[in-house]
Design goal:
The protein is mostly helical and 174 residues long. 73% of the residues lie in helices and 0% in strands. The protein contains 8 helices and no strands. Helix 4 runs antiparallel to helix 6 and helix 6 runs antiparallel to helix 7.
Length: 174
């Protein structure tokens, strides 16, 4: 435990911790914008070692594109899914409904809460990104090439980069 009257340098000196001294050196070089995120009182402190904000914001863009693509596809099902089998068309329609009314809004909400340092939201957000990557890999590689192909690939790319970046920001344990 840290003694309240002790300075961080004195505590590091007593602990003879190189990592502690490196953190103090790093802390001296942090910009004011980073201080708001890296404040010791955040729930993500000790769990995230890199700023996840770019990945959280990228996922909001992926969610918006996914919602837009689902809304467009549901407007003219025959045009987008007409060449598919009846079973696959039903699955695509159901997936578009789930994307539009559940996955996209919840993923945006989780990203917003992750930006406000909610650990639970951040971890669930990673799960939603994993689902989105899986889902849009199916859209991109299993459904016939059509007018929404580039949008599906864009969502797949954005979600994949956000997932990799968000997961790599976690501190490995053990």
């Amino acid at each position: 435990k840290q003694i309240p009257s002790a300075t961080p340098n004195a505590v590091c000196h007593r602990l003879r911790s190189t990592a502690c001294n490196e953190r103090l050196t790093l802390a001296a070089s942090i910009t004011p914008a980073a201080i708001a995120f890296d404040a010791p009182s955040t729930l993500l402190d000790g769990v995230i070692d890199r700023d996840p904000r770019p990945w959280l914001r990228l996922s909001v863009g992926a969610a918006a594109l996914a919602a837009a693509g689902s809304a467009v596809a549901l407007q003219d099902v025959e045009r987008f899914y007409g060449s598919l089998t009846t079973s696959f068309t039903d699955q695509a329609i159901a997936q578009d409904l789930v994307n539009l009314f559940f996955v996209s809004p919840v993923m945006a909400l989780l990203a917003w809460r992750g930006l406000r340092n909610s650990l639970a939201s951040y971890l669930v957000w990673l799960g939603f990104l994993t689902f989105t990557v899986y889902n849009y890999a199916i859209y991109s590689f299993s459904i016939d090439f059509g007018p929404l192909f580039l949008l599906w690939v864009a969502v797949l790319g954005m979600a994949t980069f956000a997932l990799i970046g968000g997961a790599s920001a976690l501190v490995p344990t053990g």
